[in-house]
Design goal:
Layout: H1 9-13, H2 20-32, E1 54-56, H3 59-62, E2 67-72, H4 82-95, E3 105-109, H5 113-124, E4 128-134, H6 139-147, E5 151-155, H7 162-175, E6 179-181, H8 188-211, E7 221-225, H9 234-241, E8 246-252, H10 257-260, E9 287-291, H11 293-304, H12 306-314, H13 320-326, H14 332-348, E10 355-360, H15 368-378, H16 383-394, E11 402-404, H17 407-415, H18 417-422, H19 429-434, H20 438-462
Parallel strand pairs: 2-10, 3-4, 3-6, 4-5, 7-8, 7-10, 8-9
Antiparallel strand pairs: 1-2, 9-11
Helix pairs in contact: 4-5, 4-8, 5-6, 8-9, 8-20, 11-12, 11-14, 11-15, 11-16, 12-16
Amino acid sequence: MIFTTGPTFEEMLHPHKIDPDTRARALAARTIDPLDPINLFNITWRDPHGEVYHVVLPKALTGIDAEIVVIYGRDFPSGSHKVGAAYSVLLEKALFGEVDPAKHTLVWPSTGNYGIGGAWVGGRMGCKSLVVLPEGMSRERFERIASYGAGVIKTHGSESNVKEIYDETHRLRASDPNIRILNQFEVMGNYRFHYHVTGNTLVELANELYQRGIGNGKIAAFVSAMGSAGTIAAGDRLKQVWSDHKIVGLEPIQCPTLYNNGYGSHDIQGIGDKHVTWIHNVLNMDALMCIDDIECKLGLQLLVEPAGQETLVKRYGIDSALVERLAPLFGISGICNILGAIKTAKYFGLGKGDIIATVATDSLDRYHSVMESMAECYGRLDEGKAMARVEGIFHAQRTDWIMPGTRDARERWHNLKYYTWVEQQGKTVQELDAQRDPAWWIEHQQRVAEIDARLIALRETAALPV
């Protein structure tokens, strides 16, 4: 079978290793023709100059001495780093003969960004795609999926209604033998992308920042809200490099599933999916923190509205160019991660010289409609309201709603997988118990080399581009 492919895991980590002609064509296509399959070779955390997509947040905004470094997904193809997970999942399925683009329809269960990434990747790799996501997600998500030529099935609810998504995928699978479900919450290609590519990118970024006089050459903590729990896999790699590294997971106060078996609806789109995902190595997590969804949206409004930007410059002395740069970089979950990073610094006592790394999965372009709704509900900002947002949301983050990753807590988090994966999704107790052994996770990490070797061999036999 011949199908369109892109980079290996190692090439996504180090794009300078891509064949120079292929890399040059991919870079040229970024703006000229973003739907050209050559853009698969732009799935990387590094820009055309080899610099990591990142920003160091001003301390006048965060209110802490520790450095918060955010790597952002806005400049990936499709506008989110979730495209990397979608590509890795599909690539592995195709390499092992589980997907045939000539006859199979791919189904991407998602609450937005993974589905958008799947629609983009599937089309570039010659596959027919169908995205299943809740009807309550932002208008921009549906528009982006349609623009990539994929079909959409809207299920009941909002971000936390993943059970309804699973029910629909079961119906689809039973209705057609040529349906293939690429479940981001379950398949380890998602985990491997973030373990190898995101994790090692952060390791290298820590040294690059140190050379610029930022930080001490290591990352003290990695903070990530969990949707599929792919991104937080980067922490597994960071902890292998620095044994005292802290992995901190976040979920909404409005849906505190791991915190207290809670449930509910919330609006931090992309996280808090009301279950513990199969690919989440909860036995390696050092703390769980809950963040208020309304604070995330109010914080985003501060960065977006002109009065908020003017206040950050005038009252807090933040460089105007930096404020202008920050405005479009974050979505709601990005603000959630920033608030979680501030909370992490305060809880673990991190300060000058320490780096806390986190991620902005997507950016403002998916939330203009949400910001319009916020303005209607809360009004436009003026200087007083903007200062209240800085002081009352960013600077005032508290150390409440925190559960330390004790042995007992980790055991509870792991046991919660039973109800979704054994009772509903067909896993066995033996498969669940196997995840207790660190060797299970290491084995999946080490498969990166095998998958890269398979792709290279396919290139050689099929004369595919490199």
